């Protein structure tokens, strides 16, 4: 038996068989010192550390979404520095059932750790729990699942992101008062709900700033453009549109031009460091601001190293921060994030 292993499942069977035959309390891949057992799933597992090879399954809710594509790119970039890691990517294409099946497939393949950005948190919770209960570490990015049956959640506080947007709109764009409206994400999405709650909390505290409406853009530019067109016609005195992501913010920007309201300021969330992302939209003046929202890809790889190579437990929750980006700092932030 060697420290090299094709996957956690095959390694686990070998270790258990050897320990039973030798009637030892613990054993290692080298036959010498006991392998440390680390609990990062529902049950503790032996850890080969730096001498092992590891396969990581990455399940993305929707790679067609710019944020999903950037998350995968960040994971690839961060993992390149760890030769022990082999990555296997799967794209659920926005389908919860497909994503649940992908997790089962990863388990069947015996991967050592799974990273998932859920298409939706609640429907994927049972599938994530099955992974965790079988002892495979599972890192959940961006969208929370129900319960505590996961190894580590990595993502921003979206209520606070909404508050940040509200403070910027009320304090910087409407210091003398005015009207704002909201382009929300997918209906029943925790992410959209949290960004809306935080924004409304701040706006409600400002007597001279009023939120006059909200529509659902489903995270999509074209849908947001259609909905914002209706909103601007119904409320011709809107001064600022706040969209829950940059794609919808771009749609709102186009809607403002469709309706002859070039004076309307638009604020988004995302700030992806790509040519078509929110940072460039702010730099060019299409958006008044965005919030550079971390994908968690880099942090996921660092956590995988901690678990698989460092043989250490992972923190249950890792809260990341979103950074306000305006035209004044957009170029600097873009340069920093693309280094």
From TrEMBL:
It comes from the Bacteria. The keyword Methyltransferase does not apply. The keyword NAD does not apply. It comes from Amycolatopsis marina. It holds the Pfam family Peripla_BP_4. This is Monosaccharide ABC transporter substrate-binding protein, CUT2 family. It is found in: Cell envelope. One of its GO terms (molecular function) is carbohydrate binding. InterPro entries: Peripla_BP_I, SBP_2_dom. Residues 1-28 form the signal peptide. CDD domains: PBP1_sensor_kinase-like. Residues 56-310 form the Periplasmic binding protein domain. GO terms for cellular component: cell envelope. Its main location: other. Belongs to the bacterial solute-binding protein 2 family. Keywords: Signal.
């Amino acid at each position: 038996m060697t420290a090299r292993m094709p996957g956690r499942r095959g390694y686990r069977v070998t270790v258990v068989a050897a320990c039973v035959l030798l009637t030892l309390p613990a054993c290692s891949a080298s036959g010498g010192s006991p392998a440390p057992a680390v609990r990062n799933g529902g049950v503790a597992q032996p850890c080969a550390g730096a001498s092992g090879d590891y396969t990581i399954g990455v399940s993305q809710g929707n790679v067609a979404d710019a944020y999903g594509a950037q998350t995968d790119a960040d994971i690839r970039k961060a993992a390149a520095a760890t030769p022990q890691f082999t990555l296997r990517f799967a794209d659920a294409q926005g389908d919860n059932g497909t994503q649940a099946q992908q997790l089962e497939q990863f388990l069947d393949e015996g991967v050592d750790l799974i990273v998932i950005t859920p298409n939706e948190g609640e429907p994927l919770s049972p599938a994530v729990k099955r992974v965790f209960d079988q002892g495979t570490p599972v890192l959940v990015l961006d969208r929370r699942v129900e319960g505590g049956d996961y190894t580590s959640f990595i993502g921003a506080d979206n209520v606070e992101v909404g508050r940040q947007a509200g403070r910027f709109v009320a304090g910087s764009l409407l210091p003398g008062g005015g009207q704002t409206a909201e382009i929300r994400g997918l209906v029943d999405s925790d992410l959209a709900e949290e960004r809306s709650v935080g924004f409304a909390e701040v706006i409600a505290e400002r007597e001279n700033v009023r939120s006059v409406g909200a529509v659902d853009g489903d995270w999509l530019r074209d849908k947001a453009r259609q909905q914002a067109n209706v909103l601007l016609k119904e409320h011709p005195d809107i001064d600022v549109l706040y969209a829950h992501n940059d794609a919808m913010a771009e749609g709102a920007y186009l809607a403002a031009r469709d309706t002859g309201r070039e004076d309307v300021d638009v604020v988004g969330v995302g700030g992806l460091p790509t040519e078509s992302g929110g940072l460039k939209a702010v730099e060019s003046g299409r958006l008044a601001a965005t919030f550079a929202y971390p994908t968690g890809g880099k942090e996921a790889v660092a956590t995988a190293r901690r678990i698989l190579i460092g043989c250490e437990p992972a923190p249950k929750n890792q809260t990341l921060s979103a950074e306000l980006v305006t035209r004044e700092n957009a170029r600097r932030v873009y340069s920093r994030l693309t280094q």
